[in-house]
Amino acid sequence: VVLGFQDSEDLIAPDLPTEPIPLNMGPSHPAMHGTVRMVLEVEGERISSADIQIGYLHRCFEKESENATWTQVFPYTDRLNYISPMLNNVGYAMAVEKLLGVTEQIPERAQFIRVIVGEVSRITDHLTCLGASAMELGAFTVFLYALKAREWLFELLEETCGARLTSTYLRIGGVSYDLPDGFDGKLRSIMDRTRVVMEDIGKLLERNRIFRDRMDGIGIITQADALAYGITGPVGRSTGLAYDVRKDHPYLVYDRFDFDVPVGSVGDNFDRYAVRVEEINQSMRILDQALRQIPAGPVMINDPRISLPAKSETYNSIEAMIAHFKIIMDGIRVPPGETYSYTEAGNGELGFFIVSDGTGRPWKCRVRPPCFPATAVLGKVLPGLFIADVVPTFGMINMIGGECDR
Amino acid sequence: MADPTTTPTSPAAPVSTPVAADTVTVTIDGKAHQFPKGTVLLEACNAVGANVPFFCYHPGLSSPAVCRQCLVDVKGQPKPVPSCYTPVADKMEVQTQSPRALDVRRQMLEFTLVNHPIDCPICDKAGECMLQKHYFDWDAKYARNDGIKVKKDKVVDVGPHIVLDQERCILCTRCIRVCDEVAKKHQLEMADRGDHEVLTTAPGHRLDNPYSLNTVDVCPVGALTSKDFRFSMRAWELTATQSVCPGCATGCNIEIHHSRGKIHRLVPRLNAAVNKHWMCDEGRFTYKPVQAGRLAAPFVAGAPVEWDRALDEAGRLLRAALDAGPAKVGVLFNAQSTNEDLHALARLAFEHLGLAKAYLAGVDEGWSDEILVSADKNPNRAGATAIGAGRLRTLLDLANDLKAGAVTALLVVGSDGVLGKDGAPGALPLDRLETLVVIGTHRDAVAAAAKVALPLAAWAEADGTFTNKLGMVQRIRAAVPPAGDSLPGWEILSHLARKLGATMDFTEARAVFNEAKQKHGFMKAADWGRLMLPVQLRFASTRG
Fold first, then answer.
1. Could you tell me if A313 lies within 8 Å of chain B, comparing CB atoms?
2. pTM, entire model
3. B310 and A CB contact within 8 Å
4. Of B93, B101, B76, nearest to B31 (Cα)?
5. Torsion-angle region of residue B68: left (phi > 0), alpha (psi -120 to 50) or beta?
6. Closest of B445, B444, B441, B443 to residue B461, by C-alpha
7. Number of Cβ atoms within 10 Å of the Cβ of B443
8. In the 8-state DSSP scheme, what is residue B94?
9. Cα separation, B470 vs A228, whole angstroms
10. Nearest to A343 by CA among A70, A96, A33
């Protein structure tokens, strides 16, 4: 027994005492998604301490927002969690609408569209996380399968809003335009094909020794830690915390859908994998219901102080011209006050704390990034693991630099 | 927390303010307020934050109550009253936001917009337009009327500085009142009636009074636009910095409107003691020289060099002249300089170098009137005279001394007006000098004649103070970065002092100001003012 370790490799050369060696992972490391730096101290293959250093993707989101009109912040939110930008759009739009006091007046169709594009984004988010993590364990096929399905969804979103990632699809008061023709059929077909992909991925991974060895019982986050750190989303649910904003504080039209909130029991990497796989299924369940229930109607609030007038009106009446001008140049006037609004994004509770001084731009636009606490807990989880466990554990946390560093 | 009953200053304790005989009590939106007798109701309402909109009312002009945008409900009155025309009365009960008041104001806006052209994208006023603001704040309903708008004249050349667009005019008559009441010239009038009513020049007149550009400022819409500013920059892209006009000794308070290091216009800023809401047309163009013909780099013998070399050379030349005989070294002050530059120069010349020959230059006198324009075209002659404390002689004395050979070396700080109005060399025989060091803003004949010319930051590029003819020390603020390599005068003089072996270590204008304030009696009451970040007009809501 050397240094208290019982594993075989530690016993091979019992007379060679190990020395702590600092090991730098990242910020430029293929597996350090979105540039994060981990300063590990290793003794042999074991990690004795881990210092997680974030901030390499800091883009001054919050400060930039203070110099943009409320509407101009949308493109910045795209770049928070950039593999599910629609969900960031939803979170931000709902925060501003809450401060404006118009949450109840958002047309029903717009709310359904927000749910639909949001759930599609949740699937792309989880697919990316699963595919990338599998690839980092050598399962390149899984990566290609997952990204293939993601691409179908991205193409659908591109058809909807013109961009795969930088969607800027939502507006304060609704969405910028209606879903394209044939969206319904395409999404159903994509979901059918995605179910097959998910089956294939399951078959490739779940009985795979390499995969399971790095998943089962590795990177355990206790429920107490999850609560203490404020971890939500799939990582929080993997520890058995059944907290999902969509269920616990329903927003938009989530209270009209049947769906389950999957939870884990151990809080290890496999639980996080399994929760994400199940959430993809649940998202498709929501999408099925949403596509059936979505009503016809406008997709933008009818308020000249918030929504842009129709182009024909803008060019042909002075009233609409002024309204257009004021909204574009000065920004939507949000009454003075502050609010915190939160939605379930790909990684958990995405919160926006916004303060308005009554002008057309945020006085403060603070983001609560859901992967921030999940990344913070790594410093506690990694010690005791092998170096080879770092990448899958980090991958299953799904830290997204754009969101974590803002 | 202290018990309110034992705290005499607690707001909960009954307040018994004695009501003076000349105040009246008015209830505005359910809250009682006291105002001096004779206060206009609109001012009273807005003073307590009731937010009553208006077009034709202007705090600096009379009120004709033509726009009907400030209608409020007064208890006992059968219909809403124009608050800009109504003096407060005792026990008046006013509702500024009653449904009826809101509705009539909205209807007036709708009425105003019926014939308003769809010009915002090409209108200079867009972004600081009161019609846009009021529509968005008080109406915000789409058009109910799609009739054909009345056609009027679009580009009417009404004066040397101003273009009129009759379609955009909302007939508030503010511009007419500016001409009548400020410039005391009746040059604008209303013609025709109803929806054919137009603003036009008075028969036989043009809008050419010296205060004509104030009509552009007061115009709530884009009917009157400045030829100079027209199409040069969108209003919301501008940033405003508070300053003082350098055009004459009046010292009108202004805002410099600039964008990306370029000044686009000067507009007056309210100062009841100096210029009220106004400034003259001439003053508005004082920004032009800041951006033309500037000395952008230090020059030695006609060739641009680095600062270090130029300062070395200037120091060497002046040192040599001082060693040869300090009695023949002169200093030329300028009434265009800030108090700070003048103080730094006075300290260097009199305290450190002990020079005896000092002169004061300045721009020649010009026309004046009883309104704002002073004959003295220098913003700081009062400051220069006071700081010179009787030691400064005239340009004529300098010319005589030059001719007599009594001055062979000269340090010039500020070359404005040194060579007279036409800038022709000859009046001042600078060629008699053996050494001429010039710290100046422009590439003029003085700089050309200099052995060493050092670039000086212009008034809009430096922090400092001017003393106007009333003796008021007023703050100017740097709006744009100094042209090229130029530096503020006090900084150049600090560098130069070091080269001459004197210790003058100013690192910021404020330090010079504080020292000058200690030293000079006229600056005793002066205040540097607080740090003021430039205001982005887009989000300021100050204009329109």
1. yes
2. 0.81
3. no
4. B93
5. left
6. B441
7. 17
8. E
9. 68
10. A96
DSSP assignment of A182-202 equals: THHHHHHHHHHHHHHHHHHHH
Q: Do B136 and A313 touch (CB under 8 A)?
A: no
A309 SS3 class: coil
Through-space distance between the first and last CA atoms of chain B, rounded to whole angstroms: 45
Contacts of B517 (CB under 8 A, 6+ apart): B523, B524, B526
Q: What is the bridge-based pairing of β-strands B464-467 and B473-476? A: antiparallel
Determine what percent of chain B is predicted with pLDDT higher than 70: 94
pLDDT digits (tens, 9 = 90+) for A81-126: 888 999 999 999 999 999 999 988 999 999 999 999 999 999 999 9
Please check whether residue B1 touches A, CB under 8 A.
Answer: no
Q: How many CB atoms lie within 10 A of CB B298?
A: 26
The closest alpha carbon to B316, from B409, B402, B414, belongs to B409
Interchain contact B371–A (C-beta under 8 A): no
**DSSP character for A339?**
E
Q: CA–CA separation, B463 vs B479, rounded Å? A: 9
B114–chain A nearest CA distance, Å: 8
Look at B539 and A313 and tell me if their CB atoms are within 8 Å.
no
Q: Say yes or no for a CB contact (<8 Å) between A319 and B126.
A: no
Whether residue B276 lies within 8 A of chain A, CB to CB, comes out as: no
| For testing contact with chain B, the best of A302, A324, A326, A356 (most B CBs within 10 A) | A326
Which residue type is seen at A245?
V
* Torsion angles phi and psi, residue B175, rounded to 5: -65, -35
Residue B179 DSSP code: I
CB B479 within 8 A of CB B263: yes
> What order of strands is seen across the sheet that includes strand B92-95?
B31-36, B23-28, B92-95, B71-74, B81-82
**Mean pLDDT on A224-246:** 92
Judging by DSSP bridges, how do beta strands A362-368 and B156-157 pair with one another? unpaired
Q: Does A309 touch chain B (CB under 8 A)?
A: yes
For residue A310, the distance in angstroms to the closest alpha carbon of chain B comes to: 11
A379/B130 Cα distance (integer angstroms): 57
Most A CBs within 10 Å, among B108, B111, B132, B138, to test the A interface: B132
Report pLDDT digits (tens) over A156-178.
999 999 988 898 999 999 999 89
Neighbouring CB atoms inside 10 A of B350's CB total: 17
Instruction: Give the model confidence (pLDDT) of B246-300 as tens digits.
Output: 999 999 999 999 999 999 999 999 999 999 999 999 999 999 999 999 999 999 9
Q: How far is B224 from chain A (nearest CA, A)?
A: 19
B404-422: average pLDDT: 85
